[in-house]
Specification:
With about 180 residues, the chain is mainly beta. It is built from two helices and ten strands. The protein has one domain. The strands form two sheets. Strands 1, 2, 3, 4, 7, 8, 9 and 10 form an eight-stranded antiparallel beta sheet that branches. Strands 5-6 form a two-stranded antiparallel sheet.
Length: about 180
């Protein structure tokens, strides 16, 4: 039959909570998603009808977390617009960019989607040193909530190339 006593606990149900640098960013909208995009090289060897076991070579691996963020806070907008800065000015905050072309390291963030498990614990979908590489776009209409979609891609830390910048944690107890 395939159903076990652990099946209800192992189901991932719900949109989860979006965190940026371990701080809750606010509500999300629409479907959130997590994926690991990998490119694998497999040599085509003479005499073999296809790839051989043990010859596959990972050439790239990147975690991607996508969330819709309807709360227009400075934190959320800065995460959606890498390289931008916020400037408080006379009762307002101005978010914009200057002529700088290289994205500063301050625009890279640890991002996480946490989804509760049945009876405690949680699933954590994490991307480290992630940067939003999609466009900043919000559709403003009378019959819907504007919600920029963040597409956060993990980046490898040059100080420690052996540590993966993306992972899935399954916790028995919520952190």
């Amino acid at each position: 039959m395939g159903i076990t006593a652990d099946t209800p606990t192992n189901l991932v149900v719900g949109a989860g909570e979006f965190l940026l640098d371990h701080a809750n960013i606010g509500a999300t909208i629409d479907a959130n998603s997590f994926r690991i995009e990998r490119e694998i090289f497999t040599p085509e060897l003479n005499g073999a009808k296809g790839g051989l076991v043990g010859t596959d070579y990972v050439t790239s691996s990147e975690g991607v977390l996508e969330v819709g963020v309807p709360e227009f806070s400075a934190t959320a907008l800065l995460a959606a617009w890498p390289g931008a800065d916020d400037t408080p000015s006379a009762g307002m905050v101005i978010i914009d960019e200057d002529e700088t072309r290289r994205i500063p390291t301050a625009s890279y963030h640890d991002a996480e989607l946490q989804v509760e498990r049945l009876n405690g614990g949680e699933f954590q979908f994490e991307v480290d040193d992630a940067i939003q590489i999609g466009n900043l776009e919000a559709e403003l209409t009378d019959d819907n909530v504007a919600a920029p979609r963040l597409e956060l891609h993990s980046r490898w830390n040059p100080a420690n190339l052996t540590a993966s910048p993306h992972r899935i944690r399954i916790l028995d107890v919520a952190s």
